[in-house]
Amino acid sequence: MGSLNLKSIRKAFGTHEVLKGIDLEVKDGEFVIFVGPSGCGKSTLLRVIAGLEDATSGSVQIDGKEVITTPPAKRGIAMVFQSYALYPHLTVKDNMGLGLKQMGAPRAEIDAKVGKASTMLSLDPYLARRPAELSGGQRQRVAIGRAIVREPKLFLFDEPLSNLDAALRVNTRLEIARLHRSLKATMIYVTHDQVEAMTLADKIVVLNAGQIEQIGSPMELYNKPANVFVAGFIGSPQMNFIEAGRLGDSQAKTIGIRPEHITLSRNGGDWKGKVIHVEHLGADTILYLETEDTGLLTVRLFGEHRYDVDDVVYATPDKALMHRFGADDRVQR
Ligand SMILES: Nc1ncnc2c1ncn2[C@@H]1O[C@H](COP(=O)(O)OP(=O)(O)OP(=O)(O)O)[C@@H](O)[C@H]1O
Q: Which keywords accompany this UniProt record (predicted)?
């Protein structure tokens, strides 16, 4: 079991309030990801859950039990840090088994659990090595293995992939997804990489300036952002925002349309404009236009397209997929 319930979590450092009343329910077995801009309080919230940071007020319940005054080691959680935090003088095997050893588990149990985790993570050939003799990706797998061995109620990950290169990030991401499926464990994960969030999470929590802007599945956030902030934060390239008045809409303040929900033509369409930059990404082409109706507009076309800088083109949005936001920046449905 591993459910988590946060109620009205507040945290201030001196006079600086970093978490401004966070309420969140995480069900047993869920993979929940915190995203948000740098400094919005993601890591602080994770550290409050772990008990590494005291909340100024509020409640943290794990499996229905209040743990706000419980020390980190007694909360039944395991945390995986960006920096791996391995002991340099211990072998991989001993690093992975250390938590159980400190809890006084018998040698045979430690060996069995470490063996199982190391096979799961393809670490068997490295058990006798020390961290300095491993690559970054292998070290991160040892840190994950150490967490698995402890069989925690909650796994907490703080940007675990951010020190890895692009290819390794993708591989390790897949591995974490697979682990989540096979362990059926509750995982809470902090990242500022929205691709990681979209691909791993059952549920994404979008934080901004110490508050939750929206909670939802990746596709809910993509298809139905609650406000301009979430609409702009989820999706890459970013959603286009157009002043509603420019499009003759007097009810809304802002119209949002994703780059992939616009088609282009040389012959005619809604918004006439000029290509100012083209990015060929292989599978996609990203075009930046300047149109009289919208100003700067980003368009994402699938496949390769032969548009060049200074070409005159017509952009047409899929009107069913436009988002209308009111004066308060909240979506109007
Ligand atoms: N120990 C501390 N003392 C004072 N201020 C702190 C402390 N820890 C964090 N902060 C401040 O709290 C705010 C939130 O920090 P936090 O690390 O939670 O943000 P974050 O969303 O995880 O950012 P990033 O994506 O850059 O890691 C920041 O303004 C930070 O400077």
A: ATP-binding, Cell inner membrane, Cell membrane, Membrane, Nucleotide-binding, Transport
Tens digits of per-residue pLDDT, 245-288?
999 999 999 999 999 999 999 999 999 999 999 999 999 999 99
Longest dimension (CA), the chain: 76
- Where does residue 185 fall: left (phi above 0), alpha (psi -120 to 50 degrees), or beta otherwise? beta
Domain locations along the chain: 4-230, 239-325
ipTM score for this prediction? 0.96
Helix residue ranges, H only, 54-184: 92-102, 107-120, 136-149, 166-183
Residue with CA closest to ligand 1 atom 16? 41
CATH fourth-level superfamily of 4-230: P-loop containing nucleotide triphosphate hydrolases (3.40.50.300)
**Fold (topology level) of 239-325:** OB fold (Dihydrolipoamide Acetyltransferase, E2P) (2.40.50)
Residues 6+ apart with CB under 8 A from 125: none
> Same fold for the domain at 4-230 and the one at 239-325?
no
- Please work out whether the CB of residue 285 comes within 6 Å of at least one atom of ligand 1: no
Q: How far is the CA of 44 from the centre of ligand 1 (A)?
A: 6
pTM recorded for the entire structure? 0.91
289 DSSP β-pair partners: 275, 297
The DSSP result for 14-40, as a single string, is TTEEEEEEEEEEE-TT-EEEEE-STTS
40 lines ligand 1 (CB under 6 A): yes
Q: Name the token pair of 106.
A: 């018998």
